[in-house]
Design a protein that fits this description.
Elements lengths: L1 H25 L15 H11 L1 H18 L7 H7 L1 H7 L6 H8 L3 H30 L10 H30 L12
Pfam families: Thia_YuaJ
Protein name: Energy-coupled thiamine transporter ThiT
Keywords: Membrane, Transmembrane, Transmembrane helix
Length: about 190
């Protein structure tokens, strides 16, 4: 049992570090004025979700979200906004672990079922992450909305401009990787 926990914690630490590194590197591609960028750091969170399920995804996402504003410049205007834009949305991305069983079973069938399962699982995590960012935008960045534009619409469109590409790139990258190396999401360990 100790070995299982040690393996789980080691993989969490490694994939959290990889998520942070990928997130820092990907911020060079698209950087929005009030924050947000193409986030390749979602890939390790999703992989941990598929490898260890919900617990692995939530913990990896939470740690990534806590460490990201510490290690890289962050756009923070209020403590509640910091929570809504960092730990909470990355942790919510780990909810893709709810579909880990589906991804594993699809992987045994064919590549198109696997693509469907990966797209759906990562879509769940991405929508939940987007919801947290949209709420932050409504509460803390509504003043940036152009006159006459509803704050909800502004926040949804603003955050979707980088979250939709993030979802698509992450899902396709994971699918391509696991089709060529399915062992990446399979863990021989029993879930902690």
């Amino acid at each position: 049992m100790k070995n299982q926990k040690l393996l789980f914690l080691s993989e969490t630490a490694i994939l959290t570090a990889l998520a942070l590194l990928l997130d820092m590197l990907s911020s060079f591609f698209i950087k929005m004025p009030q924050g947000g960028s193409l986030s390749l750091g979602m890939i390790p969170i999703f992989i941990m979700s598929f490898r260890w399920g919900l617990k692995g995804g939530l913990l990896t996402g939470l740690l990534t979200g806590i460490l990201q504003p510490i290690l890289a410049p962050a756009f923070i205007v209020h403590p509640a906004q910091a929570i809504l834009d960092y730990p909470l949305p990355f942790m919510l991305a780990g909810m893709s672990g709810l579909f880990a069983g589906w991804v594993h079973s699809a992987l045994k069938q064919n590549k198109w079922r696997t693509l469907t399962a990966v797209m759906a699982a990562t879509l769940l995590g991405s929508i939940l992450r987007l919801a947290s960012h949209v709420l932050s935008g409504i509460v803390f960045f509504g003043s940036y909305a152009p006159k006459g534009t509803p704050v909800f619409t502004y926040s949804l469109v603003y955050n979707s401009t980088w979250m939709i590409p993030t979802w698509i790139v992450a899902a396709l990258a994971i699918w391509l990787v696991i089709m060529n190396s399915p062992g990446l999401i399979k863990s021989n360990a029993k879930k902690p």
